[in-house]
Design a protein that fits this description.
Blueprint (H helix, E strand, L loop, with lengths): L16 H14 L2 E2 L8 E3 L10 E3 L6 E2 L1 E2 L7 E2 L17 H4 L6 H16 L23
Antiparallel strand pairs: 1-4, 2-3, 5-6
């Protein structure tokens, strides 16, 4: 059982957070895209005191990837997964699959969201870890 000192108060406004955020990601998934970098810094609520306050806005689609291919009038197809990919996302919120450089799917976005929800209740177990695993960088020998 977790100690109460690790629990933080979650305001009642967050009871709708899951529903609205899920709706936003559902829309993203429906048009065939993955966000691949869901984290608190990429989410915001609408203006306080307005009906939009209860809406969750998703930002920063710089790492988004289309996972459904649509061409002409053909039926949509899932993009073939790549065997190895470079790390994408924020280490603190990414899934194990992402850390192992696997192709990201809808479930990886869901893991990011689960970690964010867990963090609303208290720090993630790995939040205090400062050692970052080695991710190789590419060096260009010539000036690019």
């Amino acid at each position: 059982m977790l100690s109460n000192r690790f629990m933080t108060y979650v305001p009642p406004e967050f009871d709708c957070f899951l529903l609205y955020e899920r709706k936003g990601r559902g829309t993203l998934f429906q048009i065939g895209f993955l966000h691949r970098d869901l984290k608190p810094g990429n989410l915001a609520v609408g203006p306080i005191g307005t009906p939009q306050f209860r809406l969750i806005h998703i930002f920063d689609f710089g790492l988004a990837r289309q996972y459904v291919i649509t061409s002409g009038g053909e039926r949509p197809k899932l993009r073939r997964p790549r065997p190895r990919v470079h790390f994408r996302g924020t280490l603190r919120y990414c899934s194990i699959n992402c850390q192992q450089k696997g192709e990201q799917g809808r479930d990886d976005d869901l893991w990011c969201f689960l970690y964010m929800l867990a963090e609303l209740r208290g720090p993630l177990p790995w939040a205090s870890i400062r050692q970052v695993p080695h991710f190789p960088t590419l060096h260009c020998p010539k000036k690019c």
